[in-house]
Fold these 4 entries.
Entry 1:
Amino acid sequence: MGVARPAPRLRALPPNTWWWVLAGVVMLPAAAPLGVLAYGLVSGVVTTVPMARLLELAANTGALGAAVTSTSLLIGGASAWLVSRTDLPGKKLATVLVLTPFAVPSFVGALALLGATGADGILSTAWAWMGGDVIRYPSGFWAAWLVLTLISVPLVHLAVAPAVRSLNPTLEEAARGLGAGRLKVFWTVTLPQLRPSLTAGALLVGLYTLSDFGAVSLLRYDTFTRAIYLEYAGRVDRRPALGLAAVLAAVAVLLVWLERGTRTRGVWFTARPRRTGSPVRLGLGGKILGWGFLGTLVTVSLLVPVAVLIAWVMRGLISGVLVNQPWAELGRSMWVALLTALVAGVVVAPVAMVTTRYRNRWAGLLEGGAWALYGVPHIAVGMAMIVFTLWLARPLYQTLVLLVGVYVVMFLPQILGPSRDSLGRVSPSMEEASRSLGRSPLRTFMGITLPLMAPGLLSGAALVFLTTLRELPATLLLRPAGFETLAIRVWSATGEGFYTQGALAGLLLLLVAALPLAIVTRHELIR
Amino acid sequence: MSSGFQVGRRRRTLLTALLTAGLLVGACGGADDPLLIYSGRGEELVGPLIEEFSDSSGLEVEVRYAGSTELASTLLEEGSGTEADVFLAQDPASLGLAAPLMATLPSDVIEAVPPRFRDRGHRWVGVSGRIRTVIYDRDQVQVSDLPASIDDLLDPRWAGMIGVAPTNGSFLAFVAAMILDRGEAATLEWLKELAALDPLDYPKNSPIVAAADAGEVGLGLVNHYYLLRLQAEGAGKRAANHFLSAGDPGSLVMPSGVGVLSGSEQSEDAHRFIEFLLSETAQRYFAEQTYEYPLAAGVRPAASLPPIDSIPTPAIDLSDLHTALERATDLVAEAGLL
């Protein structure tokens, strides 16, 4: 029997101290971007941006956030209600269809919109063939609103569906019994019960809109993220870009903090035992309307975009334009995502251990730091890390080690959540039993804890893989020379107007994302 | 329980191996450093050319693609510690920004190109020429109505009809040239009047040309070669290029160019690369594939283009263009064109 002999000094420390040291080491890199951004905020770097510009960006970003949030709440709320509260046939299929657009990165959505319209757009061409005028290139607010809303609907759906499912029907029945009308019941009884999950959904979408770089940069709507990149790319002085990034990061951290607050209340809310009501009966007309709604949603947010991409690729194949095929990019995207998922899977263990097993201030700090960084828009993290590596960690500047490291700390909560869920179901008494039977802490972890954590780790790693594949702004700023990924390829080809090239890379990205998405979605469906 | 441990250990070993491999790949730049080119010109345009150089010279080449100005700023940030050997840029302004970091080029390289398309201090040399033009839709705009100068563009009759790409590098270079030619105040005034005409806003030049060809815009401020590329794909029959005759920044002749970083340990290979770019093969590629003006080796431009020396262009030294670039970005934002 193989005996793992820990080094003597290792043995000198009590086992849980080692978990703390490891967790600290894992979370240490997160301090770099947060520190640089905090410095940017307090050091006066922000003042290099004219106040009028700051206000303009804040107004634009806020308007987009409000518009995307309200429309996606309406649509996502409606789809969640249809799927979770009615007797609509084919709900499993409906859920999968509604959630799938989550796999469409915003820059691919923007590519589909740009590729559909304009002088040589797919829809324009079809429309002109039927005798219509050219559909103009959409740009600015409405274009960004459309793309981001369609991608945000699944987020709202995911946040709201569980709450809708567990709505307590007795309250509604009582209100109806007391003579309240349908509308009044909805406003005074149903909606308040849903408020925590709606708020959580709204904050998630707000945060997503605030962070998005791909869609707003390609569709040219002047928000913070686009301005940061323009300042970075068009100016030698890095201070305005860092200042804007610091402001954006501060707003994002505030939203994360609010979102975390609603989340805990939401859990408490839905955890109360109750009977669930019988589904609302839709008549035949209602069922047709319901599927008509879901069908339209899926067509606009998934089928049309994919069809536009396929049409561009076909066009390229026919005219022979499709010369630069992105196989190298595909390879890079896959392996960097795999590497990130693996590293995240390994390093998450100590963080999950200390934050599950020891609830104290330090655990709260580690977890809070992870979540804060998770919410900071990637373009801000990228800016901060450029500054950090240039000033303080030159050997790491534009290396793969840095890129993967940044991915891991940014996406850690995605694997931390599921791992903690799994770990929470393991009773510490099993570990204690193993220890009392003479097993070393390491062997106990490998033999008992790790296998029980495995399902959470797998689903979390799939999510990290998926997110890494789609990551654009941090990759754009931090990648090593020549390290073009599929996401970069889609973005730069679309920006240059090479839609054929972009479409092929975009389709490959969607295909590669399908498997991890299936794993993640299944996890959500079971939950 | 024992088997659980064994599996765990094997898994751990596997993970460790993979991680180590990954980190090693990332950490080592490779034993034999390739020639590192920072290219502000897109992979779609210069990728095939760089590949050909790599094949013919047997040198390993690595390319970092990004915007020209972005790479110039990156070079300034990296300073003398940069790993880059060569900077290939779309415009003289970016080259000018990075020029302090560049070494003087050998005289045979410099002298291959006319003086107005190279740096005063011989640190960069032009590779291909591009001219600012006005693209127009022949169905909407009569030849007799075409503007002669950028000031004619401000006529109210063009309200809502002009396509611009205000964040694009070549538009910013045009604005920078205007600042050198006319001063900041006049430039800001011109930009504000343009903004008052509600121009249609595009990310790049190519969609403006496609839009003119489809009648979506009447006029557009672009570079000359986008139309020729569109025509090569069988489209571009409705749009036409118009070269402004007033000799103002609207017909700026602007070279893309290249220089060698002074910190480069492979300056000989870098010079070979520049010689290749100025060779007949590469110059022919620019003439025939990207429809730019060849600047060396006696190669002739595409037949449909007027000779480069016949274009009236403002009397500014392109080596100074970078001094106005930052202000150009500010003025475009101030005029409300972003």
Entry 2:
Amino acid sequence: MSTTGAPSSTEADPQAATLAVIAGVLGEGNVNPSRFGDNLRVFVPAGRLFEVLSALKASGFDWLIELGGTDYLGYPGPARASRFEVHYVLKNSATRERIILKAGVDDPDPSLPSAYPLWPGADWMEREVFDMYGIRFEGHPDLRRILMPEGFAAFPLRKDYPLRGRGERHNFPRLTRGET
Amino acid sequence: MAAPAMGMGLDETDLEVEEQDATRATWTLNFGPQHPATHTTLRLILELDGERIVKATPDIGYLHSGFEKLGEHLTFNQYVTIADRKNYLSPPMNEVAWFHAVEKLLEVELTPRCQYIRVIISELARMSDHLLCTGAAALDLGAFTAFLYSFNLRELIYDVYEEMSGYRFHPGYLRIGGVLYDFNERVLDRIRKVLDAFPKVYADVSKLLFRNRIFLDRVRGIGVLTKEKALAFSCSGPIARASGVTYDIRKDEPYLCYPELDFDVPYTTEGDCWARFIVRMEELRQSHRILEQALRKLPSGPVNAPIAEKFPLPDKLTAYNSMEGLIQHFELIMPNRGLQSPVDEVYAAVESPNGELGYYLVTDGTQSGWRVRTRPPSFIHFSVFPLLIKDHLIADIVAVLGSLNIIAAELDR
């Protein structure tokens, strides 16, 4: 069952130490974890994200397992503070503990601090989020499109981008044999 | 009429400048997108100093087909056909990963028999993937025979897929809460054939490669990935284990019935192409061990979760012969109905042959995902390639590419 908020005080929380690390950065009372199964998720304001990531890395979360974006435009759940969210799944290679951080960004000009200085593995994953959602990562050394072609104008995983595209495939410039 | 010799008028300092320029000059070579060693389509822009690689810039996206966007429009059960096509060397593993995330979100409890069946097809897929990866790594380096032996065994694994689902390549075998058809005796016979054939194939391949001087010289000390770099670059699976990261989701965050099975997690600390090869070879033997036990312990009883759960599709017999089955089939299949998912999100991962294969699944209450984010191991492992190939020779590209097992369909999705 999914439960929201911290578990009851009688039950020792194995991830209490991790939450304390985040509380050390954001301040006590500003950490609102939510859980689903074994997933522990913490929302972090975009401005403090890099500090939280650094503090977690220093406390043993040395493995950035996954980084990806989501567009919540028109999402039916409770109202969200921002349109886009980026999730960071971190893992502690010694204790096997996982934590998911989420940071929200909004139109126009969504941007987040890059995790590249902490984990070079963030390089391509951040490029993919930029490619698909147009979220900029400040401090990324080489933020280019990665899967879509260089001249592509739209961000295809945004919810306002249609499944069949806007004719890019139709109008894609083609070279004939004579022109090559 | 002889032209005056060039350089006659140059003094020594000019010559020095020219020599320096010659040593500094690099040239650019385009590798791919079509090349026998890339196996599919990916491109490398190589900056070369002679034959030494100064810088490699991968250029990917040739096979980008919007799999994640499609996941937002297909139902959970329909998406199995897309999941199959990500890592096409081990399709059942992709299905297990996909339904692992879906069932975690829907909180569906699997029956013991279904858990064993899923473990069996996962390990068959792992064997199939490792056989191709190790065989193709040898093939690209010129050892053709080992590839044929391992490919021959993969045919037997495809026979299992065909018998269990009707499809050889992309079985589309799993459904929410269960599988399409239960294993029957013929399927089990086919699996036993694979298990019986395996020791001979392993012995043949190891005899051909383990002490093969040419093969060893091509892979030893090539593309070394240290433990620190493996963690920093988000590597997982056999590639991280070859660098000394002793992590395996099957052991450390157990799912399905893996805790009931006895197996070891091989690792080495060298981190070169040879280490990645030998870790995969050992994992083949461990998969064989798991399969032997799982076949012996395979419980009887129902395979699909009870239809009272409201998620599993009833099998044909139930759908045609009982009122409850018919109603449930109608409810799940008709377009304006379908199952109810929570308005929530989950990250769930399994240990795929290439590493951690995870899904970040966001649902909005309907029967298709709001966001279907794949954590593709090939994509993450390929980002470490420029680091591994730096200062090596052009001929080492095929060795490193082969050891990373880059599957372009999963790379670009």
Entry 3:
Amino acid sequence: MDVDFKKDEELEQLLKELNNLKQNDYEFHDNLKPVYSTGKGLTRETVEEISEIKKEPDWMRRARLKALEVFQSKPVPTWGPDLSGIDWENTSYYNRPDERRVNDWNEVPDQIKETFQKLGIPEIEQKYLAGSVAQYDSEGVYHNLKKVWEDKGVVFMDLDSAIQRYPDLVKDYYCKAVPITDNKFAALNGAVWSGGSFLYVPKGVQIDMPLQTYFRMNGEATGQFEHTIVVADEGSKVHYVEGCLPADEIVSRGDTFTPISTVNLLDSVMTHSGRKSQVTRTFIHPYEGRMLTVTPLSMGNAFRLTVEHPVLAVRRSDVDACAPRNGKMKRLSDGRLPACKPDFIRADELKEGDFIVYVAPTETTDDPSINEPVLRLIGLYAAAGSLHTDQASGIREVSFRYGRPGIAKTLAMETANLIEFLGGEAIIARSDNGLTTVSSKSGDLISLLNDLVREVGNGKKFSERIMLLPPQKQKLIIDQYHGAVSAFKGRDRSLPSVVRFSAAGETMAFQLQEMLARIGTFATITPGRVKNRAIHDTDGGSKAQYVVQYRENRQFSEVRRSGNIFFVPIKNITSEDYNDLVYNLEVSGENTYLAKGFAVHNCTAPRYDRDSLHSAIVEIYVKKNARARYTSVQNWSKSVYNMPTKRSWVDENAQMEWVGGSLGSKVTMLYPSSYLRGAHSSASNLNIALAGAGTYKDTGAKALHFAPYTSSRIVAKSISIEDGKAIYRGLLRMNKGAVHSKSKVQCDALLINDQSSSLTFPHDEIYEPTATFSHEASVGKIGTEELTYLRSRGLSEDEASSMIVLGFLDDVMKEIPMEFAVEMNRLIKLEMSKFGAVG
Amino acid sequence: MPTLEIRNLSARVEDKQLLKDVSMTVKGGEIHALMGPNGAGKSTLGYVLMGHPNYEVTSGSVKIDGVELIGKYPEERAKAGLFLAFQNPVAVQGVKLSSFLRTAYNQVHPSEKLSIQEFYDRMKQHMRKVGLDESFISRSVNDGFSGGERKRFEILQMVMLRPKFVVLDEIDSGLDVDALKMVAEEIKEYYNQEVGFLIITHYQRILKNIEPQFVHILMNGKMAMEGDNSISLRIEEEGYDWIRGA
């Protein structure tokens, strides 16, 4: 993947801060008793009680009890990592999550909260991650998407609810791919499971957007013993993501309208609520794909974004639904639109005519020193003023130039009066080229103007002090500005209520639009090039111009206002191929930001956990001709034993893809398996394991070929830091009859220190003579030559080794979803830095 | 004026003494050539200047503007303004050229806030000048590069990182005539009164494109001769034997 350097800088900063925290701050020491718990230890009564609490059907109760017997009869496996540290007696097997939520957050140590903050995780997600809310409800955000899925017959809910609502469907798949007799931990899950998802994708339904557990709508999102079932019925397509990954990227402007590429960590940007919020992460990466340009009413507000980026909007087709009137189709002007609640809609699902949301900032800070004369002079200065410094004397001078006969003189007089009223001296002069110039060398006045209106690029911008003024004060600036500029542009004769003037540059155009929105009017911005000189540009020649238009005391046709938000129809949407950098922000709190004033959304989070024993089951059924992908990034706290069982059944001509990243935890044993049951089915497995200090990663994959012409591909990459152990353990079986099946296994290990270690245990059972397979394995160390080369260009040892590690992972990163790669990249750097990895 | 001062520098690898009492002063605006037969210790000097951990400095000093570099990490030397174009730059698998350069740039020029787009624009402009296709931006550092491409990339790094002192170790090897011309043009364009060059070369070829004011001859780890460019011209005619005899 492309290492994202902007984020690297920010990470650098963050890591410095993190390094100052103690290492065990990442662990949870939570002595809180849950409000409801079945107590410690595991007995038949515990299991009965869990089933009772969940009001489960009898078949599930019996399945649990059967599983308990198996669990109790099976010994703890001894062939892998040391599991003697698991305290079976003192483990709580069931805590009712909705009762433990509230208190837990208070029990989360402040430093953990700080860590979450430094990781840039929004508060609601922090609570989720700390286990204090069992569910991260993003229903509001994804309501629309959910409806689309439901209409197609997709079932996506927590497994408990699915058992109540679709008992027969669940029963068909529950513990079929992973029988409870499979292993001790699967049996444990079978006895005490709680939480997890059920996802059913009907025949032929293709879901292009990754379905993420965070977007599931109700019930427990995760648990200690979660059980997840994914069924991709014939010909369907689905990508299931465990956790939540950042959404894709856009080009945007914050409230001061700087390009998104220049927005930095901890800067404030405006969110869709109209309030400012801090940027907690920034993203940049190359993007190759479709890029949409959404143009709301006027070209100046057109913004570009990737197809899957959510945009706050109301569908035109929903306007009737959200505020019906006698069932009759009415003209839009009857005021129903403001009653609609906007939702986040994928950019490529927006249509021309749908309404997107322009947000006027609501925060104001009055500045009494900026009084009426100052405001009026600022308006004139923004329109016609400029500052010069005399090279010879070093004396600064402000001048205002007015060109139109008749009105120029009036404006000049007014300017001179204002300057004198404010304690300065003004000189009025007429130049040969017909301009009337008012100038002043008053130092205080120049400093004031220079402070309130800045020169930027080809224009000017108002300072933050101006932008935060109450709307009525801003109105004075606009009136004066308009008065001065309209000497040139005038009003539109055909539409007398339309006020039109040109802005001094793009930034000022957005600022004027924002001010007008605060006053209550939505203005359009039309960029163009003008030949004639604008009043603030006496140089002549062609230059970019931004024409701001609005209607006094009313809105343009079809624009509707509701408080500080404006519903603005989309005039058109165009699509183009794009291959360049894209940017994205993560913003604390609401996690939205405004693209040229319009609201879009973002989302992200890694996963931490506090329970010490985790044993999940994931069962995936990929039916004939279907495709399923399962992605998970797991980053557990360092006390966790993570023992999941993940397995897929892959039918004829179907494809299964496992993508996994395993970080954190004390011990992880994870071997996602693919049972290739139908001819021409295939499975791929990309896995990255990071064994940090004191941790043991026993991971790998299993591919079992039962049918002809099946293929599997396994790529496993591991990194061991300090005394971390990374083991690759794999099983490849080619049954008799799996004719002409193929398998390719590649495992690469990278050792960071002398005491780190890596072992490979591939296990092959080949019973079919026509089958072919290959194994490649490599073990590398970070080399002196590479490190020295990178360091000779100024990179520190840590930076250089992080880069090499990420480079080592690059061929896997390239194949996995961008968002996942970004997340992995971030977590790996964090991990590397936490342990002070050195070469 | 920036000054790189090498005084009585001796260095070894394990028990093998490779540099013996080498002294030289390079000032901003000066171009020095370091020549010598194979195995004379020319490349060793480059590595020692850069702080390669395999070489042990047994005595002497290397200063940039009075600040001692011996004992400092390579990254600290880079930040002090030193740049070594490696004779055989290593491939670093998976590390993207663009992100590597950008990270390095931010380390060497921490106070310069160059936006990513500006950085890209500048990089693309120089890539054209050194003859590297834009597609190299997303390739791994030196991975699968030809010898010539590696050299072009070294020069790209030089112009992007803007060092005060540049050591070019056999920059012309692997470059054909046209490529050498391009690279030489880029070096000359970068050359100014604030930058000092030390061109390490076995042959006189590169010196036809970039004419040095000073020529140093290293033999068996020792300075054998110093003078103006006439030395290099004679070496082209006669090789090194006459110096051995001198």
Entry 4:
Amino acid sequence: MINVAKKGMPSLAGLFFWMNIKLENTKKLEVAKPLKLDCGKIIKDFPLAYETYGKLNDNKDNAILVFHALTGDQFVTGTNPITNKEGWWITAVGPGKAIDTNKYFVICANVIGGCMGSLGPRNINPDTKKPYGLDFPVITIKDMVRAQETLLEHLGIKKLLCATGGSMGGMQLLQFCATFPDKTFSAIPIACSSSHSAQNIALNELARQAIMADPVWDNGKYVLKDLQPKNGLAVARMVGHISYLSEKGMQEKFGRKLQEKADYEFSFNADFQVESYLRHQGYAFVERFDANSVLYITRAMDYFDLSKQFNGGLVEAFKNQKTKFLIISFSSDWLYTTKDNKDIVIALNASGADVSYSEIITDKGHDSFLLNEPQFLKTLKGFIDSMHEKFKNEKRI
Amino acid sequence: MKNSKMKKEFKVIADLLPNNIRVLDVGCGDGSLMNLLKKEKNVEVRGLELSQENVQECIHKGLPVIQGNAETELHQFPNKSFDYVVLSQTLQAFYEPEKVLRNLLRIGKSVVISIPNFGYWKVRTKLLFFGKMPVTKTLPNTWYNTPNLHMCTIKDLFNYCDEKKINIKKVVGVNEDKTSLIKKSNLEIKNLFSKVGIFLIS
């Protein structure tokens, strides 16, 4: 298929060794308490990798939990020690930013099923003493959330000031609020949905099929051979990247511009800038992510259906919510549309919950929540700061 | 100036409401009325507002607000989910004010509506003597750029409620700082001298 051997790329065996060394320096909680997964299997004594920013104050009223998206990790801001690049939400989180780490204590954990230090398909299966691969149990969004809840106990936080997350992070947050109605004072689900649509599932299936079609994948057994199905994983990532941009945003960014050439090459090389962009994104991704993790995490997203858990009623899921919600959607997001987000608002309204909603007008598509979108960041900051005042008052009483 | 006048209207609306209730403010603007109601009446407020800028302003103030269009998005609120629904000076700007009104009465146990009065004497004289569409302090736009599609008078809305068997609990006329109760007996004269009419209906 696409044959792009990147120059200077470390061998994958070397890469994973190097990543493991680096991951040793990250914070890790050893979760002893057994966790019964939705699939029926039980995990215990498993690692949960996390990172924190800022300081927890004496009143413990300034803790904010961030849930990361499909390919995110616990390194929200600053420099990611694995990639040496900026944290994925550096636009919103940091000193003086919308989520100000001079003021707030920000926590983020790597989801289980992931590959940044939390229990995932690359970990050693205690039964076989070999990496799990496809023997890893199928996990759900609820499993991810329940695993992360143990971290709050560990950090001694009874109630968060706020919890937030975009995309799959938003889904985790909705699940978190439904499962633990009294664990956060406020919540900001961003660009998400209460269940995956047929189109969402179809796009994830495309990503999975791309990985599975790569002969290196070998039913997930590549982990035993210290290999990685690079081509399949890169294509999976390209699918994602198309869905994160809007049609208009893509046209404005790339149009029909050619990649460092005056005319067509009459070949299948990356003539167009948009092709070059996708290939770059795809092959950069394989250096930091595990193919089996993509399978597991996308599966968890597809299985997510909050109303199904509550006998078909999303209103029921949010019954007796004391949490104050702010839902944010982006006008050009076609992956998790304004309508998807509004359905959450309607359910929260019907359940009598305290809910605000804002649609940010932008051409940048689903990716907007990761970008420097002034209106979005202003809204985020305004809500969190006003919630902090309210939470402090509530704690005083 | 506009602000102080607004505040008089808001003050009248606040006086109409009991304490400790749930209020939906449709077209809540920057949240001034919601803030006033929270402070003076200790009510639980929720706003619906179209403009992103205003929504942001409300969120900054810690006021719960939903960005949306009252014309098309009132259906999301369940029946009788609020004790009071407030609509301040926007009824005339909807494409289908009757539909909006029906929705307000569905959502709220009671509804407070304020309207700029097209029956105010200055409005009448402008049309009568100059033959031009009236431009006043309460109606500052000209015919080609006004958002007001369905102007009505206090008498019109009064008669409409009567006709449709909508229960009129109280009507207050506002002229600058003066307020007065409007009843069937003084409707003609108040319709002439009130700039704004505030209706409490259910």
